[in-house]
Amino acid sequence: MRSAADPRLGGRAAWCAWGIGVTVYVLAVVHRTSLGVAGLDAAARFGIGASALSTFSILQVLVYAGMQIPVGLLVDRLGPRRVLCTGLVLLTLGQLGFAFSTSFTPALVSRAVLGCGDAMTFVSVLRLGARWFPARRNPFIAQLTGLVGTLGNLVSTMVLSQVLHSAGWTATFATTGLLGLAVLALVLLFLRDTPDSAARETLFGREPVTAPAHLAGGDRPSLRAQISAAWEQPGTRLGLWVHFTTAFPASAFLLLWGMPFLMDGQGLSRGLAGSLLSLIIVSNMGFALLVGQLVSRRPGVRVPLVLIVVLGTGALWGVVLCWPGAHVPMWLLLVLTAAMGSNGPASLVGLDFARTVNPPERLGTASGIVNMGGFIATVLALFGIGLVLDLLTPGGGADYTPHAFRLAFCTLYLPMALGLSQILRLRPKAARREAELRALRAAA
User: Fold this and answer.
1) CA 272/CA 259 separation, integer angstroms
2) Contact 162, 270 (CB under 8 A)
3) 222, 242, 303, 382: which one has the fewest Cβ atoms less than 10 Å from its Cβ?
4) Using one digit for the tens of pLDDT, what is the confidence trace for 306-335?
5) pLDDT for position 202
6) pLDDT at 397
7) Rounded distance, CA 124 to CA 90, Å?
8) Which stretches of 79-168 are DSSP H helices?
9) Sign for the pseudo-dihedral over CA of 35, 38, 42, 43
10) 173: how many CB neighbours lie within 10 A of its CB?
11) In this structure, are residues 24 and 187 in contact, taking their beta carbons and an 8 Å threshold?
12) How far apart are CA 358 and CA 352, in angstroms?
């Protein structure tokens, strides 16, 4: 085991390793959110309504959520480099398939493949951060990973949305798909799982020859035992529900329904709607820096911070949905979208609850369990919004009214209420377990 004083932890080589990993994550976010700016185009291209359009994002997110535990196990056993390479191959195949699809079924399969590749990125980058940086910096590195990942959202909202209408569907999605090959070469040539990886000339310099930590000897628990051990920790379960409750409002908005809501529901132009989506992402970056520093220095603020974000987001949506008149004022939309920028950083607090109660060799599995939460809630939100819109739209077309959008977005409160109840239930158990572990470490 390396000492926290190891000079290789947190140095230039660590930032290079993390930088390569987070580049993969940024590309995955570009692919994941590309449909968010192409929702109306996809409906026209494939001749589908709101429910079918929701199916794209729902299937993609379901695959992502379902893959989190298997990916966590793979990262723990094979190391993040191999998992990232596999993810890049799947991302490229999925995006290229989506680019050339002209009917609903092939496009749906392509998004499922893309979701599988996307699922392999974030947990892998978290594991790189845990191996290359001291433990005390892990909360900040997790927030920084989320912050940089939001650049992928910016690319989608500010670049892809414009390129799509100038270059066309196939050229836009094919070009983004082929970027995966360049990033794959970067990972294969330069990325190493740990500072102790086998000696080789890399951009980091020459590394010492030792066995990779994930291949070290010793008996390994079975896959079921690995999952059970992570799940038994109340901090892991609390982390899952924190992620579930905080992440989904912004995710559902950015992945699919934000652009239609702002354009058809609020009468904004495509450019202005894209700017509001970009505000969520820019706000996310600011909140990520704030939350990362707070959680690293004062772990006691984690649950209060989460509750403030959830209740604040719910209250602002309540004002928007109850506003008299067809359209809400621009200042309120600005406040809402800026506030939703806090959703992503708050969701990453869930990872810290899991990190503090699980050993390093189980961290990938625990992170995968937590990371499922927000995407399961996102699926519920995407499905609920699409279902209500279809029920309230005559003829099943895509001419959604402001009234239909308001009723549809009321479904956000269902997963929010469920998640809050679970957070309040698990908070005391998780706090007691953390206190027990701190006492054991102090005694040792």
Assistant:
1) 10
2) no
3) 222
4) 999 999 999 999 999 999 988 999 999 999
5) 40
6) 57
7) 15
8) 80-100, 104-119, 122-132, 138-154, 161-167
9) positive
10) 27
11) yes
12) 10
